[in-house]
Structure formats: structure tokens, C-alpha cells
Amino acid sequence: MVLAAQLNEWTRLQCFGHRLHLAIGHALKDDRVSRAIGLCKKLVGHFSHSWKKKAAMAEAQRELKLPEHSLITECPTRWGSKEMMIARVLEQLKAITQVLSGDRYARSLIPTWQDIEVLESIHKALHPLQEFTDALSGEEYVSISYLKPVLHLLSTSVLAENQEDTDLTRSIKTKALAYLTDKYSDPSIQELLDVASFLDPRFKTKYIAADNIPTIKTRLKTEIMQPARRAYNQEKRSRTETTTMPKNAQPSVEKGKKSLGSFFKTAVGSSVSCMQPEDVVEAELNSYLMTPTIDGEEDPLAWWKMHRINFPQLCNMARKYLCVPATSAPSERLFSAGGNIVTCTRSSLKPAKVDMLIFLAKNL
Predict the structure, then answer these.
(1) DSSP bridge partners of 75
(2) What are the residue ranges in the chain where pLDDT is below 50?
């Protein structure tokens, strides 16, 4: 797929979820982090393989009035599971300490204050990122136009350094942000994200640099003009052929009494047909930018459906760009069972998901 994109000179937009996973993995390369996470894994394994410890854990939770939650196992391919594992250990820390303090063989698994400090630093840096991954992994709404605003929000708020952050939290934020910034710094990717954000009526030019707006408008004009110019030339040719056709060859139409509205209809039609395609596209772009932005919770596709008659050319561009998913999670979700990635055959997929697969679509 990578080679096909290169040969066809397509812009290759990689999955944001995978990029974020790699960015976090890069940011967590620290001996302190490795020790603390390794300890969490041992704790999860210890309680998972002993029903006595599970029963003691449940009793300690009731005694300490803690949520009766089980510890969470980390999945190496899902960075969010690591954050959930750490959050659950911190939540159940008192119960874990109470259960293990009476076992001289497992007493060494109780986290020290240094381990707790490291886990809290990791949790503070990673917890806000969990929501972005979940939001961008949807399949029933537009997600690509969110990338530009999300990257902006990460750099200005979520991953921005705070005075209350520990040195480890600052280090994790800085490394993760630097990795994401580098991976999305390619000019072609930036232009694609700018176009998608431009065509989303929730954002338009809000997250696009002022110097890049003319470039985005030029790109859209070029893409719109190719089919528009062909349609214009075809319409012009058909009008010319109709005009030059001999009167005896023209189809006879019974003359009826004209209404007053017919004169105005002819006048408007002639004025619109005289406009050059470039002027029509320019007017459509300017009119679109003058419309007010919609609320962030509204559906941009529903907005385009409602305003298609006003912006027919831009509506086609919106259908082209806004259909691109920000992550590959929707396609990977087809092969997931109970949230875990498994090796699937056709028989192990639900009928609704089978119909979603392209190679099994009924219309092919």
C-alpha cells in the first residue's frame, strides 16, 4: 500500500491512533517508567492467578469503601490499556497494600513511594490523551477534519507544560508532542489537513495559518475547475449547435401564451450562463467563508446536505475529503471480538460486519 501511494503520488495519511501509540512509547523510554510499569504488570499477574488474592481484594475493597474493580491487564498494541492499568493500580492502591502486607512472599510487590510518584506522573501526562483516541476512532462521524484542531489543542493545552507538573510529566509531554509534530510536519500532509479543516463548517480557517489560506483556495479551485470547465464547454457547445440548427430542423413547439414570470426566468438564466467557471467557483468560495461556523457538536455532513444547493462545487469537495478516516480503528474493529484483536475468518464475523467489507459487498 505504501508503494502504491508513492507510485500514484497520493498523500499518505497514517493512522493517528498508531502515531499516538508510537509517540507515547517513545516518550515512556525511561528507566523509572520501565520499573514502575513492570511492577504494575507483576501486580496484575499476581492477582489474576490467585483466586484467594481476588477474594481478599474484594473484601478489602468493601472494607475500605473502594470501587469493586478488577485490575486491568496491559495490551502491548493498545497504549490506552497501559494508562488504564496504571489508573486502576492507583485507584486500588490501598486495597493492594492491605492484601499484600500480610504475605511475606508477595510483600515486595507493594509499590514504594518512588513508584507511586512515577505512576502518578505518567497518569497525569497520559490520561487526557485517552479521550482523543476514543473520539477520533469513531466510524459514524467525520474525523479527519478534527486532526488539525486536535494537534493545535495538544500543543497549546493538553501537552503544554504546567507549573505543577513533575520533571517526569514534563519530559513525557515534551517527547510525545515533539514526535507528533515531526510526523505531521510534511507539507503535503499539512495541506491535506488544512483542506479537510477548511471544508468543515465547524472550523473553516480557524486552525489554518493565514499564509496558507490562499494556497488552500487555489488547490480547491484547481480541483473544482477541471470538471466545471468541461461542463461549461459542453453546455456552450450544445447552445451553439442549437442556435445554428436550421429552423425547419428544429423541433416544432406549439406556441402558447407566455406568462410574466417566463421573461424573468430567461433573463436570470442568461446572466448565470454568461459567467465564467472561474468566477462561479470564486463566488462560491467567498460565499462559503462568509457563512457563520456551526457548533462543534453539529454534524458537518448534515450541514452540507442542507446547503448543497448553495455550494454545489464545494459540496463535492467535502464528500471527497471528509470521508477519509483519521484512524484505521473502524476497519480494524471489523476483525475485533469483545475488544480483543483476533484472527478472524468469514464465519467468525457478524453478518452486519461482513456486509461492510468491500470484497464481500453485495453490489460487486
Answers:
(1) 78
(2) 267-272, 337-346, 358-364
Residue 360: predicted pLDDT: 38
284-289 long-range contacts, Cβ below 8 Å, gap at least 24? 284/311, 284/312, 284/313, 284/314, 285/217, 285/220, 285/221, 285/314, 287/311, 288/204, 288/314, 289/204, 289/205
pLDDT of residue 75: 84
187 CB neighbour count, 10 Å cutoff: 10
Neighbours of 200 (CB within 10 A): 27
Please tell me the distance from the alpha carbon of residue 43 to that of residue 38, in angstroms, as a whole number. Answer: 9
What was the pLDDT predicted at 271? 47
Per-residue model confidence as pLDDT tens digits over 67-98: 999 999 888 877 788 999 999 999 999 999 99
Largest CA distance in the chain: 109
Query: pTM of the entire structure?
Result: 0.75
H or E element in which residue 336 lies: strand 336-337
pLDDT of 318 reads 93
Rounded Cα distance between 234 and 240, Å, is 10
Q: How far is CA 248 from the centre of its chain?
A: 62
178 burial via Cβ count (<10 Å: 0-12, 13-18, 19+): middle
DSSP string for residues in 53-113: HHHHHHHHHHHHT---------BTTBHHHHHHHHHHHHHTHHHHHHHHTT-TTTGGGSPPH
Cell of 302: 448534515
Neighbours of 324 (CB within 10 A): 15
Neighbours of 181 (CB within 10 A): 14
Cell numbers for 340: 480483543
Q: Are 213 and 205 in contact (CB under 8 A)?
A: yes
DSSP string spanning 188-236? HHHHHHHHHHHT-TTTTTTTS-GGGHHHHHHHHHHHHHHHHHHHHHHHH
